[in-house]
UniProtKB/TrEMBL annotation:
Coiled coil: none annotated. GO terms for biological process: iron-sulfur cluster assembly. Pfam families: Fe-S_biosyn (PF01521). Belongs to the HesB/IscA family. GO terms for molecular function: 2 iron, 2 sulfur cluster binding. GO terms for cellular component: cytosol. It comes from the Bacteria. Residues 3-104 form the Core domain. This is Iron-binding apoprotein IscA.
Amino acid sequence: MAHLSITNAAADQIRRVLDERGHGLGLRVTVKPSGCSGYSYVLDFADEAANDDVIFEDHGVTVYVAPEALEMLDGSEVDYVSEGLNRFFRFNNPNVKDQCGCGESFSV
């Protein structure tokens, strides 16, 4: 069975954005071919669940993962971090074999 965890910081940010939007079920995650290393994460907010979504719940929030991304994301932790003036979701993904220097893309 696949596993994906969500940190408290990520859960707080997901709740904050959903509250600001006034609607939505949770965070939607998929991957797409991109960048110099192979794939990049694609994040959006889910307003409805697709029939084939794999659903993970942690800290009171829900993350919807597209089935084609599940193998690449299995075992990952979704975090929300601040680095200087930048704030962003970060994936601590044990499946990543290599990533580009800018951190925008990865390979598995």
